[in-house]
């Protein structure tokens, strides 16, 4: 037990943000829009009262209400050297003022500024589930050394350090508990809301919440190398990466704005010359055209929807690195799965044990486990784990004369008796035949690995081991089949093992005896056949295939290289989340298409009614900005998943 430590505080920086400046930074755009609207309303009421100087309030409404949008439009134009929607709106408002339609211009600025503020809020809301992760990283940790507890920056923590985590504190680094037990809420990392009990030897993840116990833990990774830090990096890239539809609309917007300005310039004189409209009516209709032809709703049809979908996925343990990957996922026809660690748990487990010795199961298992405990082989670890499961954490006998035979097994002495534990090729042929006949056993089993135990020239036991299929695999395959998505397993195992896993998981097909370097070749072949293929894996040997696939999906507990290469990460290793991601991608695709069609239809309708001289500027503003708000709200539906 580590003695109680003395605390040395870590200096914290005071918060210097002034409440007023913080309020303006967060709500300034909305305050300016409402102030401009208020000035417009007062000016309108004064006009009704025939006040001679009522019009003086309109320029103030223009300046205050249009400040943010004008600033944004000018800065974006200077930065990109391209015209934009904001400049169209400001030009239309100034044009309305030039023909003495101050009220219409002020109403335009008010509604445009208000919709812009609402769009800013909606974007902030849709990214909140992602950006909130940034606040979950603790800045300090309780380092315990030489009986003293010191608060240090998490950036100073190194692997091997002992830290203390108290109830109600976030875990500052990836670590392993050395003393104590507690319950940890891992929802921030896995999406699972049920707290997990942790005791000595259990792993802790940075960013998760320690609930009810104080624990000492040994740090295993530096701050920047923790899974939490990697997730933050992925989140930042996800927010910056744009979907193909979004990129297309942005390119379309630049061309469209120029076309609108050219058509508006023609509208300034063509109807007067060709149709006999008055100059006042001609200029007024040109200004209305500037308003209703602006592609605000079209521009807003994708971004809120994409960010909302990515945020919803993050809340449910699906880390999506950008909208482009969600769009690609909606078109997937086939998903290829790695076997070990993806379809299966990745670690062999004992499924059957036969004891032909004169010893009890408990005594024989403890002797075998004591010998296998000297080996680092996965099968040996599985035998030790099985012994602990059957016998509990009882002391193991002392062993000696250990000799490991790589690729075959291990030999050692326990309780003055020599035991040989290993594969069939290590056993005497006659002893093996006698053992199989005595127990009426076949020479091979259905996809299981067999480990024999021999002593004094006789085989006294056999273990059957199997890498079990994940509990979520079969359900995930069924869900993907409902979406019309085919599934295939790619494995280096033989045909018999692959067929056994296929039967248990329900996967559509398999490619067996596939070397790691050939996985990418198989994915390339499947891409040509099906058009769009996803790959799901967990190891470094899966990374070439993850890159080759249209969408790469990694298991959250997988290798770091796989996590960084993949486009989507399943934080809780739950394969059913793939079907959830597919559903989310298809829903996002439907909403984006719906928004684009609605936005285009509204623009065409407003332009047509303007040419027919039915549309006034206030109604044009309401129709244009109202459609923008509707597509934003439609996109935000994805926050519910």
From TrEMBL:
**Can you say where in the cell this protein is located?**
Cell membrane; Membrane
Q: Which domain of life is it from?
A: Bacteria
Among Pfam families, the record links this protein to:
E1-E2_ATPase (PF00122), Hydrolase (PF00702)
- The name on file for this protein is Heavy metal translocating P-type ATPase
List UniProt keywords, sorted A-Z: ATP-binding, Cell membrane, Ion transport, Magnesium, Membrane, Metal-binding, Nucleotide-binding, Phosphoprotein, Translocase, Transmembrane, Transmembrane helix, Transport
* Stretches that traverse the bilayer: 87-114, 255-277, 283-311, 596-615
All copies of domain P-type ATPase A, residue ranges: 136-236
**Has keyword Glycosyltransferase?**
no
Homology family:
Belongs to the cation transport ATPase (P-type) (TC 3.A.3) family. Type IB subfamily.
InterPro entries linked to this entry: ATPase_P-typ_cyto_dom_N, ATPase_P-typ_P_site, ATPase_P-typ_TM_dom_sf, ATPase_P-typ_transduc_dom_A_sf, ATPase_P-type_domA, Cation_Transport_ATPase, HAD-like_sf, HAD_sf
Name the PROSITE patterns on file. ATPASE_E1_E2, COF_2
Look up and give the membrane topology term.
Multi-pass membrane protein
Q: Identify the PANTHER family for this entry.
A: CADMIUM_ZINC-TRANSPORTING ATPASE HMA1, CHLOROPLASTIC-RELATED, PROBABLE CADMIUM/ZINC-TRANSPORTING ATPASE HMA1
Q: Do the record's keywords include Phosphoprotein?
A: yes
Where is it predominantly found? membrane
């Amino acid at each position: 037990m580590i003695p109680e430590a003395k605390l040395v505080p870590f200096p914290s920086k005071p918060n210097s943000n002034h409440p007023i400046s913080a309020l303006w930074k967060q709500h300034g755009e909305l305050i300016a829009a409402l102030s401009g609207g208020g000035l417009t309303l007062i000016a309108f009421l004064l006009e009704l009262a025939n006040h001679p100087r009522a019009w003086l309030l309109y320029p103030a409404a223009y300046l205050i209400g249009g400040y943010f949008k004008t600033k944004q439009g000018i800065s974006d134009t200077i930065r990109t050297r391209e015209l934009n929607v904001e400049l169209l709106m400001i030009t239309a408002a100034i044009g309305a003022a030039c023909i003495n339609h101050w009220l219409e211009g002020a109403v335009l600025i008010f509604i445009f500024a208000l919709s812009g503020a609402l769009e800013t809020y909606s974007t902030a809301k849709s990214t909140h589930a992602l950006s909130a992760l940034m606040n979950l990283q603790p800045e300090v940790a309780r380092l315990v050394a030489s009986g003293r507890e010191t608060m240090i920056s998490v950036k100073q923590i190194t692997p091997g350090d002992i830290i203390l985590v108290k109830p109600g504190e976030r875990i500052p680094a990836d670590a392993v508990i050395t003393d104590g037990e507690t319950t940890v809420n891992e929802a921030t990392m896995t999406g699972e809301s049920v707290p997990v009990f942790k005791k000595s030897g259990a792993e802790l993840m940075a960013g998760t919440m320690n609930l009810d116990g104080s624990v000492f833990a040994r740090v295993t990774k530096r701050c920047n190398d923790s899974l939490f830090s990697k997730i933050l990096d992925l989140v930042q890239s996800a927010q910056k990466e744009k979907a193909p539809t979004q990129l297309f609309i942005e390119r379309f917007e630049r061309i469209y704005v120029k076309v609108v300005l050219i058509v508006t310039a023609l509208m300034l004189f063509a109807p007067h010359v060709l149709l006999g409209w008055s100059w006042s009516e001609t200029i007024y209709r040109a200004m209305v055209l500037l308003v209703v032809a602006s592609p605000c709703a079209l521009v807003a049809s994708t971004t809120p929807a994409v960010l909302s979908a990515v945020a919803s996925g993050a809340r449910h343990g699906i880390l999506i690195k950008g909208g482009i990957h969600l769009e690609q996922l909606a078109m997937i026809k086939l998903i290829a799965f790695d076997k070990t660690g993806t379809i299966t748990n990745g670690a062999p487990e004992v499924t059957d044990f036969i004891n032909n010795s004169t010893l009890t199961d408990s005594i024989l298992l403890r002797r075998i486990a004591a010998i296998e405990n000297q080996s680092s082989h996965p099968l040996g670890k599985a035998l030790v784990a099985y012994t602990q499961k059957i016998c509990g954490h009882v002391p193991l006998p002392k062993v000696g004369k250990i000799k490991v035979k790589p690729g075959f097994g291990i030999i050692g002495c326990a309780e003055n008796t020599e035991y040989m534990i290993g594969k069939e090729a290590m056993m005497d042929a006659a002893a093996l035949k006698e053992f199989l006949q005595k127990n009426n056993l076949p020479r091979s089993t259905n996809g299981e690995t067999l480990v024999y135990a021999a002593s004094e020239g006789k085989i006294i036991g056999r273990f059957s081991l199997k890498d079990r299929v994940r509990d979520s695999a079969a359900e995930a395959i069924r869900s993907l089949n409902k979406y019309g998505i085919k599934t295939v397993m790619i494995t280096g195992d033989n045909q018999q093992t692959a067929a056994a896993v296929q039967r248990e998981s329900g996967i559509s097909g398999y490619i067996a005896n596939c070397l790691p370097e050939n996985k990418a070749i198989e994915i390339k072949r499947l891409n040509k056949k099906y058009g769009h293929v996803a790959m799901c894996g967990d190891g470094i040997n899966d990374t070439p295939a993850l890159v080759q696939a249209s969408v790469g999906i990694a298991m959250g507990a997988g290798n770091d290289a796989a996590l960084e290469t993949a486009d989507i990460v399943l934080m809780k290793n739950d394969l059913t989340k793939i079907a959830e991601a597919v559903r989310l991608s298809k829903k996002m695709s439907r909403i984006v298409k719906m928004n684009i069609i609605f936005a285009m239809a509204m623009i065409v309708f407003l332009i047509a009614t303007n040419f027919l001289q039915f549309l006034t500027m206030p109604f044009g503003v309401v129709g244009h900005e109202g459609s923008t708000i509707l597509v934003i709200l439609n996109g935000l539906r994805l926050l519910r998943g």
